Structures are given as structure tokens and as C-alpha cells.
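Q: Got one fold?
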Amino acid sequence: MTPQPPPGQGPIDPRGAFSPPPAPGGMTSSWQTNAAAGGTPPPPPPPGMMPPMPPQFPQMYPPPMFMPPPPRPHRSFTRAIFVTLATTIFGISLTLNIYLLLASGFLSGGSSKQTSLLEGDPHQKVAVVPVSGTIFDDMSRKFDRWMSAVDKDGDVKALVIEVDSPGGSVTASDEMLHRIQRYKNDHSGVPVIISMGGLAASGGYYVSCGGDYLFAQPTTLTGNIGVLLPQYNVSKLFDKWGISENTIVSSGATFKNAGSMFQPETPEARAYLQDIADKAFAQFKSVVRTGRTGHTNFKTPELDNIANGKIYTAEDAKKIGLIDDIGYQQDAYEYAAKKAGLNKMTVVRYHDPPSFFDAFSGESNVSNPHASASGTGANGITINGVNVNANEVRELLTPRLLYLWRGQ
């Protein structure tokens, strides 16, 4: 049944029931007119012109579209050449700078530098070369490098060697003594003075015997003339655990494995190794005799009594002639200048420049020239607060003759 309009109202045309209201002023748009008449709406307007979306025909009007960004311009050939050239120049510059750093010793610490301790006449130099820490091969090489730098400096008129060492290997100590003797032969008019620090024992005293005059501080410990050949025998422990050494020794080489820590010691091996140590001891006493004969209080016949492995205080060492005087570093500098006839000395200490790693870690041996060669760093590591020194591990595993005081 068809619904009837309210009284006073004509029939409703269903085609216009959903027509939008007329435009202001009573005007209707063309699409409204066509829609009311049941016609089709006009085509969508051109891009960029979007009229309000008619609710009757949303499918005829797609959503707005945005213009894509313009394509990026291609790099020109000239720009590519410029970038390549700049990169090449930068690489060459970087390589050159690294080479210069290596050549100057900044990365490797391979060169020697001077630090001025006292300014005076630059042509009246007193050179100071430190011997600090345990004496092993690395110390010997460093000492030789510094001495070579002193050799080349014609302004050096006196040399002071500052010794603060418990000693070390027999060979390294002897190499350093020989380096001092070679310097004295090449520069006969240059006095060589020794200034002992807290410790100048065993190999430290061996090296000191190369000096013309020996100073020790009041608290210095020196002497300890003797030889060690460290050995550790774990053969009983191996027996307990059922472990045996089966090292093959060439036929006829009876003493090749003498002193092995894994086998019980034999009297023959003991006598053999004892003879080696005694000969190194004789070498030590010969160096002391040569270096100290003619000095105050030193009596050659008493050497065998003195060279008994004891460590001596500065006062006792002076009484038996192992040193010449008791004094500090400044006393040694002034004595060296006096012997060289200098009236306005310049004092310079030799050292290595800080390494690349020292620079970044804030450590440098410039400010601490007495840094021990046996400390952490290249020669040791710290594990749970305990310093494990590579030289000491090497000493444990490799038997070697030592001019070393082990009382500390």
C-alpha cells in the first residue's frame, strides 16, 4: 500500500528524495539538476581541481593524488673526479703522517729524547742516563740506544749513570757494562759518574763498576756480589701423580737435559751446573777488582770476603771501598761538572718518548724516568690485583745465570 502524503502536500518524487539542498540564492548546480532528473553526473574535474565530494557518487571521484618528488639529479662527471681526487689526497696525507709518527718514534718509542733538568750553557752538557728496574735484554737494548744518542752529542762533557736496579741476567748486565767501557774508550776525556738510587745490587752493582766514581744515597743498598742459577724440581710431584718425562736426548750428549725440573737431580749434573755458576762468579769478581782497584778503602785481598753475596748499606759499602762517596743525584751532577771543568752546566736526562698507547692511557716515562722495566705494561699484566711479570715467568721456566738480588 502506497503511503499517502500529509494533508496539503503533493505527491513525493522518489528520484529527488536524496537531492542536496539548493545552492545559496536558490540556484542548483548542474550535477544536482542532473541527479534530480535521474541523469548521470558530469565527469570528474581536471587534476588539481577537487570540488566537494558529492555523497551520491563517491565512486566517481578518486582520493586526492600528490605529485611525486622530482628525480635526484645525477652527479656530474666533474664532481666524481673531484671527489676521487680529494679522497686520494687525504689517503696519501694520512699515510705520510703515520709514517712520520713511526719515524719519530711516537708509535714505537724507538728514538731517544732529552728532558732538561738544569738550564745552563748548552755546550756544557752533563748527560744523565738511567738504569732502572730489572736488567734483562729489553733494558740492555734501551740503554744502548740512549748511550748511542749521548755518543752523537758533541756538547756532552760529562756522563752520569743513575742506577736503581736489583740486577738481572748475567748477559744483559755484561752488555751494559761493555757499553759503558766502549763509551769511555771513545771519549777518554769525559768523566763517567755513577749515582745509585735505592738499590744497586748484584747486576746493578756490576754495571756500576764501569764508572770512574761511585755515589750512593744514604739509604742505598748495594753489593750482593754473586751468581744465581735458579732451578725448580717437581720430579717428586710427578711421581706422586704418575707423570714421567720422556724427553729424547741425542746419543752421547749426556748433559743435554741436565737440570731438568722433571727428573731427579744427579751428582754429575749438579757438579756440572755448579761449575758454570762459579765461572760466572769469577767474572763478577774480576769486574769488581778491575773497577775498584785504586779507589779509597778498597783492598783487593779482601775481595773474596766482600764478595759473599751480602747486601751492604751505603755506609758499610764506603768502608770496604765498594763506593766512593755518599750523596744524592745533585751531588753526582756537580761532581761530574767539576771533573769536566764546567762552570755553567746544563743537565739533560735521556729517555724514550711516550708510545702511542702511553699517550692514550695517560702514562708516560717522560715524567717518570725511573719507571721500572719490570712493571706492568709490555713486560707484565695484572690479574686480580696481582702483578704477573713476564720476565719472572721466563726466569721460572728457563734456567739462566742471574746477577740478581732476590731479597726484596
